[in-house]
Amino acid sequence: MDHSLFYIDGAWVPPLTPRLFPVENPATEETVAQISLGTAEDVDRAVAAACAAFPGWAATPVAERRAAVERFLTLYKDGYDEMVQAISTEMGAPVTMAREQQADTGIGHTQGFLDALDALDWEWKLPNGDTLVREPIGVVGLITPWNWPINQIALKVIPALLTGCPCVLKPSEIAPLSAMLFARMIDAAGFPPGVFNLVNGDGPEVGAALSRHADIAMMSFTGSTRAGAAVSRDAAETVKRVTLELGGKSPNLVFADCDLDTQIAASVAECMNNTGQSCDAPTRLIVERSVYDRVVDLARAAALATAVGDPAQEGPHIGPLVSQLQWTRVQALIEAGIEDGGRLIAGGPGKPEGFDTGHYARPTIFADVTPDMRLWRQEVFGPVLTITPFDTEDDAIRLANDTAYGLAAYVQTGDPARARRVARALRAGMVHLNGAPHNYGSPFGGYGQSGNGREGGLLGLEDFTEVKSVHGL
Which has fewest Cβ within 10 Å: 155, 341, 364, 423? Predict the structure, then answer.
């Protein structure tokens, strides 16, 4: 396909002002495609198409909207291997991980939304006799990141389509190949023209044009907290709804009564997964002091056993960081950990041995990290873990909540009563107990500077609707 085109009003069209931008394979540093960066005028075209489509799509029976999404899901499954390769190529996810995790999110989230659609009430009575009616909010702008590209696209596009909201998607310009393949599947599924639109571009031009646009009723953004704040500022003038899924600095509390051998290895693996480029990664290991030294040894061994390799090869290894810019940011924070007095027990600055080409980083762990250090406060978004001791349960909770973020938290304990008690005390949108995964259909989102709103399942559908009260019906 011609990656310089945009998908607007049911057709692949050239940009009004072509501005070519190279898409790099982060493992080889080679250009694998050329996209065009859009302009505000391209956004205007896409929004106009979505606005024209809104009355008809909003009035389309829910069963017909469901059928269109089900057709898309069939096409996605048929093109699964191509999607795996697109994700692996554009952002460096090892092909095994891209197949088992990254691309799977397109199926899992879509089915989760289809299941939740049955539980979404479109009209109901209050005890006082008034009627509440749920309606699509309108045309929505969607901005998605590079680290879990299809995961975030599915979490935004599918609920928009199911609830009757035409959308304009701006995927990450760093990893746009999977998004354009997704658009090709949407086109083949037969959605009406204008219901789904895609404009490639960067944040300052296309992202800002979407956020400021007077005809967009809602912005849904996933990315950094800094960029999320910019979206909110741009959207404020038109008082549109803004949902944000932003950064994280997730704590992982390890109590002495858990299965240390199993849980520490799993905790390190979870932190290093996707080369640490996950907003909900458990990057702060907070450990009961009586087992602290043993946990440090177990974590070091797990880090040293974490293989780094070519994403084109099958296997459980991690791949490169997504770009040279991201590699430089991660290296700066590793250096900050050393400067601030963290005890480096694995990894460190530079590339792993044998990786001169590609944006590879070393799986890195710092012990004895304290809350005054930059590594405690700042999201690294790379394969870097910190370890800190605690003395009491209250101390562990205080340390866990000592962050501006609040996306996820993790607890390892053999005591069910403690697990419940600590989970309730943690200021996070999601709590994982003893390695329990996040399931499709459950809400994803956080507190504080991790954003607002929830994605996935029933709550993710509700975010794209307005509720109207009708008196006397």
Answer: 341
